[in-house]
Amino acid sequence: MLQLYFAATSPYVRKVMVVAHHLGVADRIEHLAAAANPVNRDRNIAAFNPLAKVPAARTDDGLCLFDSRVICEYIDSERGGGLFPAAGRARWIALTQQALADGLLDAAILVRYERTLRPAELRWAQWDAGQMSKIDDCLNEIEAQATTLGTVRFTIGEITIACALGYLDFRYPEVAWREGRPKAAAWYEIFSKLPAMQATMPPA
Fold this sequence. Notes:
The chain has 8 helices and 4 strands. It is an alpha+beta fold. A 4-stranded mixed β-sheet has the order 2-1-3-4.
């Protein structure tokens, strides 16, 4: 079904694989080794995605797909999974939830690059703080929406939110996002135990 440039620690790759596991097609995805880096770009990934970012995929008939939003919708459309509502209010809610969680992840990954890749003498504390502020605001919005999030019937919105919260647990345990957000914490406690989430846990 797909060749996929893969990194087990990428939350965007995890989102794709959660969709694949949930829809029963994970075994039809070939994982290709990737060394994505914002400075030293992996030319192999660039053959699928000129941005050289993961996830990047290629279908059996040679169509290249990127990024996670496109790949997830492709898998869902091929399987008729319903994770992307077709139209109306439900669609816009799902896509906006996906954008919210992707935005949280964008900020988190930018901070990680700043702290781990940028030389110490070039780091900008205010920029770091600004990104962390975005994460905090996104978490507060997730808390505000938590009672509407599904655990049995759900969309790409819930999947992306769960992957974002899981990434904070993985890379930013000091953020302690559950504190002051009991509704989001209770929802995630249930959702994170779904088989597709358990099958895609990042390495310890």
